[in-house]
Every structure is written in structure tokens, then in C-alpha cells.
């Protein structure tokens, strides 16, 4: 039997867990929680990409509740997992398309290489499996590989992909796709976009144009703007959120490539700093490797703690055809 999602999440976060666990063990064997150990713990958390604000909050909680007590690294991990889950719980919001919108327009944004196009394909499959009609727009018209990749996903999941000639106007393409999706009764329209952040002003102009042109047909579009982030970039992900929030009204996050990264702590820093809903996380290349974000599962996977309650629903991987 294939690994369930929580097992894959733990496996994917193993480098983060190992790094964090080794550093915690070096601070806590069995000793009283004094000021020196709290300072060392704060340094460990910051080094693990939790961010200074999150680290400070965790330290203050421990200072109030455990100061002077004799603790082991396991007890610290248990308490840390609960604190992490507490920080993440408010942003744990599954993505749910509005059934009253036909289609619910989802603008996908993010830097090239974050897994944006693949995420669209995975989401299209997920909602298609639920009986919803999905359509995709290959809006990164200057990148042939992105168009081809989306077409492959379209064939795989049975969803139409609207594309144009190389270098076609992305706004015009989105407009025509929205009209077609409306006429064909699609439930969700996913729009892929360019992610050339080295030319920030041009990208900002392109995204603004896509939105402006779509609103000539539907003044409420897009209904969701999802920013896809690559967890392996660590603190750079924070800067990407800042930049894209300047460009568009980001409504939620999808965090990819949690498999094999030693920087899983960045998820906590993102939650604390921006309070944006984290809709889903990805731990691999297969369609079923993207799933709704769970605060408890993530906290347990990050600290290597199996005592935190997690969802008992395990997703079993399908065999690739």
C-alpha cells in the first residue's frame, strides 16, 4: 500500500525535522528551562526559518508556562507542536469554489518555478473528481513549456485548456476563455500567468490588464487570486508575498515542494506575518500529492511528533497510468 498523505508530509519534512530535532536535543537533554536555554531555543527556531516574531511568541509562552521546570527535548517538541498548530489554525482554510459563480474564476500567480502550472493541473483534477467542470487557461503565453505542461494536465484530467499563439496577449486570452467557460457552464476557470519577477513593472502591468479586461465581461472576476510559493526558497517566500500583494489582491496561498526541504518553518512565518489563508500544500509531483492544509498535520510533521492529533483520513496514491 502506498504512503498516506500524512506519512508523505512527515517524510517530506524530514530534513526540517532532523535539523530542528538535532538543535533542540543539543539545547535540552534534561535540564531546567532557564533564561539561557530560552535564548538558545529562540536561536534554534529562528535558524529553522520560523521567523523572529514566531520564535518570540513561542519563547514567551514557554516562559510563562514552563519556566523553571525540568524539561526534556521530547516535552519541548510536544509543546512546540501545539504552539505551531495554534499559530497555523486561523489560516487553515480549504479552498472551496462558490457554486453560485459559474465559473468561479481563479487567477494563479507566482514566480516561475514554484510549481504554479502543476498546481493548476492538480486542482483541476481534484475538483473534476468531485464532479465539477473545470477549464484551464495557458496564460503564460511567452513560455512554451508552461503551455505544453498545462495541455498535458488537461489531457490527463479531461479538462479543456484554452491557449493561444506563442506570445499572444494573455488578457485577451483570459477574456475569451471566460466567455467560453460561461457559455459551456464551467464551474471553475483556472488561469495560469507569467511569473517573470525580474521585470516587476511589466508583470504588474500584465496582471492588472488581465483583471481589467476580464471585468469587462464579469465585473467580479477574478473571484480568487492564489499565490503559489516554493517552500525551498525559505525567507525569499516572504518577499514574494509582499511583492505580489502589491500587484494583485492575493486571497490565499498554496505552498509547494515541502518534500525534501529543510525550510518547513517558513510556513509558520508566512502565517504569522500575513494571515493569508493557506489552502493547500504539496509534497510531490503526483496529483494526489497536493492536499488541503492542516495545522495539526503540519505541526506534527515538522517537529516529528506523533502525539498531536491529526486527520485520520489518509489519501492513498493512485497508480500512474
TrEMBL record:
<dbReference type="InterPro" id="IPR000897">
    <property type="entry name" value="SRP54_GTPase_dom"/>
</dbReference>
<keyword id="KW-0472">Membrane</keyword>
<feature type="binding site">
    <location>
        <begin position="110"/>
        <end position="117"/>
    </location>
    <ligand>
        <name>GTP</name>
    </ligand>
</feature>
<comment type="subunit">
    <text>Part of the signal recognition particle protein translocation system, which is composed of SRP and FtsY. SRP is a ribonucleoprotein composed of Ffh and a 4.5S RNA molecule.</text>
</comment>
<keyword id="KW-1003">Cell membrane</keyword>
<dbReference type="InterPro" id="IPR036225">
    <property type="entry name" value="SRP/SRP_N"/>
</dbReference>
<dbReference type="GO" id="GO:0005886">
    <property type="term" value="C:plasma membrane"/>
</dbReference>
<keyword id="KW-0547">Nucleotide-binding</keyword>
<keyword id="KW-0342">GTP-binding</keyword>
<keyword id="KW-0378">Hydrolase</keyword>
<protein>
    <recommendedName>
        <fullName>Signal recognition particle receptor FtsY</fullName>
        <ecNumber>3.6.5.4</ecNumber>
    </recommendedName>
</protein>
<dbReference type="GO" id="GO:0005525">
    <property type="term" value="F:GTP binding"/>
</dbReference>
<keyword id="KW-0675">Receptor</keyword>
<dbReference type="GO" id="GO:0003924">
    <property type="term" value="F:GTPase activity"/>
</dbReference>
<comment type="similarity">
    <text>Belongs to the GTP-binding SRP family. FtsY subfamily.</text>
</comment>
<dbReference type="InterPro" id="IPR027417">
    <property type="entry name" value="P-loop_NTPase"/>
</dbReference>
<feature type="domain" description="SRP54-type proteins GTP-binding">
    <location>
        <begin position="103"/>
        <end position="304"/>
    </location>
</feature>
<dbReference type="InterPro" id="IPR003593">
    <property type="entry name" value="AAA+_ATPase"/>
</dbReference>
<feature type="binding site">
    <location>
        <begin position="256"/>
        <end position="259"/>
    </location>
    <ligand>
        <name>GTP</name>
    </ligand>
</feature>
<dbReference type="Pfam" id="PF02881">
    <property type="entry name" value="SRP54_N"/>
</dbReference>
<feature type="domain" description="AAA+ ATPase">
    <location>
        <begin position="102"/>
        <end position="260"/>
    </location>
</feature>
<dbReference type="InterPro" id="IPR004390">
    <property type="entry name" value="SR_rcpt_FtsY"/>
</dbReference>
<dbReference type="GO" id="GO:0005737">
    <property type="term" value="C:cytoplasm"/>
</dbReference>
<dbReference type="Pfam" id="PF00448">
    <property type="entry name" value="SRP54"/>
</dbReference>
<feature type="binding site">
    <location>
        <begin position="192"/>
        <end position="196"/>
    </location>
    <ligand>
        <name>GTP</name>
    </ligand>
</feature>
<keyword id="KW-0963">Cytoplasm</keyword>
<dbReference type="GO" id="GO:0006614">
    <property type="term" value="P:SRP-dependent cotranslational protein targeting to membrane"/>
</dbReference>
<comment type="function">
    <text>Involved in targeting and insertion of nascent membrane proteins into the cytoplasmic membrane. Acts as a receptor for the complex formed by the signal recognition particle (SRP) and the ribosome-nascent chain (RNC). Interaction with SRP-RNC leads to the transfer of the RNC complex to the Sec translocase for insertion into the membrane, the hydrolysis of GTP by both Ffh and FtsY, and the dissociation of the SRP-FtsY complex into the individual components.</text>
</comment>
<dbReference type="InterPro" id="IPR013822">
    <property type="entry name" value="Signal_recog_particl_SRP54_hlx"/>
</dbReference>
<dbReference type="InterPro" id="IPR042101">
    <property type="entry name" value="SRP54_N_sf"/>
</dbReference>
<feature type="domain" description="Signal recognition particle SRP54 helical bundle">
    <location>
        <begin position="9"/>
        <end position="88"/>
    </location>
</feature>
<dbReference type="GO" id="GO:0005047">
    <property type="term" value="F:signal recognition particle binding"/>
</dbReference>
Amino acid at each position: 500500500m502506498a504512503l498516506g498523505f500524512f506519512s508523505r508530509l512527515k517524510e517530506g519534512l524530514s530534513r526540517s525535522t532532523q535539523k530542528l530535532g538535532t538543535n533542540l536535543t543539543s539545547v535540552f537533554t534534561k535540564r531546567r528551562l532557564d533564561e539561557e536555554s530560552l535564548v538558545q531555543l529562540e536561536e534554534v527556531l529562528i535558524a529553522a526559518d520560523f521567523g523572529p516574531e514566531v520564535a518570540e511568541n513561542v519563547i514567551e509562552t514557554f516562559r510563562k508556562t514552563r519556566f523553571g521546570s525540568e524539561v526534556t527535548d521530547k516535552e519541548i517538541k510536544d509543546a512546540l507542536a501545539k504552539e505551531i498548530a495554534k499559530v497555523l489554525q486561523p489560516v487553515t482554510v480549504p479552498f472551496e469554489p462558490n457554486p453560485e459563480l459559474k465559473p468561479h474564476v481563479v487567477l494563479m500567480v507566482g514566480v516561475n518555478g514554484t510549481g504554479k502550472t502543476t498546481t493548476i493541473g492538480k486542482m483541476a483534477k481534484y475538483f473534476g473528481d468531485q464532479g465539477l467542470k473545470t477549464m484551464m487557461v495557458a496564460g503564460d503565453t511567452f513560455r512554451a513549456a508552461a503551455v505544453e505542461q498545462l495541455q498535458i494536465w488537461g489531457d490527463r484530467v479531461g479538462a479543456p485548456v484554452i491557449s493561444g499563439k506563442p506570445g499572444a496577449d494573455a488578457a485577451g486570452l483570459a477574456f475569451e476563455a471566460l466567455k467560453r467557460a460561461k457559455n459551456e457552464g464551467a464551474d471553475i476557470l483556472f488561469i495560469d500567468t507569467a511569473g517573470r519577477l525580474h521585470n516587476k513593472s511589466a508583470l504588474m502591468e500584465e496582471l492588472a490588464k488581465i483583471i481589467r479586461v476580464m471585468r469587462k465581461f464579469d465585473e467580479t472576476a477574478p473571484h480568487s487570486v492564489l499565490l503559489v510559493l516554493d517552500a525551498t526558497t525559505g525567507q525569499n517566500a516572504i518577499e514574494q508575498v509582499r511583492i505580489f500583494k502589491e500587484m494583485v489582491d492575493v486571497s490565499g496561498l498554496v505552498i509547494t515542494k515541502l518534500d525534501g526541504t529543510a525550510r518547513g518553518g517558513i510556513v509558520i512565518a508566512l502565517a504569522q506575518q500575513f494571515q493569508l489563508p493557506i489552502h493547500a500544500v504539496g509534497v510531490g509531483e503526483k496529483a494526489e500529492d497536493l492536499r488541503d492544509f492542516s495545522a495539526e498535520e503540519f505541526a506534527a510533521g515538522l517537529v516529528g511528533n506523533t502525539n498531536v492529533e491529526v486527520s485520520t483520513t489518509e489519501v492513498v496514491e493512485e497508480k500512474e497510468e
